[in-house]
Specification:
elongated; 3 strands; three-stranded antiparallel beta sheet
C-alpha cells in the first residue's frame, strides 16, 4: 500500500532539509551580495523547482559553523587591533 504524506508531514520534511533564501541569510549573517556570490561560485547549492528556490539546510549550517575559520583565513586584517 502506498503511503501518502499529509501536507503537514510534507512541510515538516521540507523544513528539516531545506531553507529559503531568507532563512539561509539569517543563519549565515552575510549580505545578499555575498550569499549570491557563494551560490554563483558553487560554494552553496541552489535547488529550483518552478518558482521555488531552496538551499540544503545541512550545507548552510555547515558553512555557518565554518565561517569563523574562513574569515580568519581569508580576512585576517579584520582581526587586527
Amino acid at each position: 500500500m502506498d503511503h501518502y504524506f499529509s501536507k503537514q508531514e510534507q512541510f515538516e520534511f521540507l523544513n528539516s532539509y531545506f531553507l529559503s533564501t531568507e532563512e539561509a541569510l539569517d543563519i549565515l549573517q552575510i549580505s545578499k551580495q555575498n550569499f549570491y556570490s557563494l551560490v554563483n561560485r558553487r560554494k552553496l547549492t541552489r535547488i529550483k523547482k518552478g518558482g521555488a528556490v531552496l538551499y540544503y539546510r545541512m550545507e548552510i549550517v555547515e558553512r555557518a559553523n565554518n565561517q569563523p575559520s574562513l574569515r580568519e583565513k581569508y580576512r585576517p586584517y579584520d582581526n587586527s587591533n
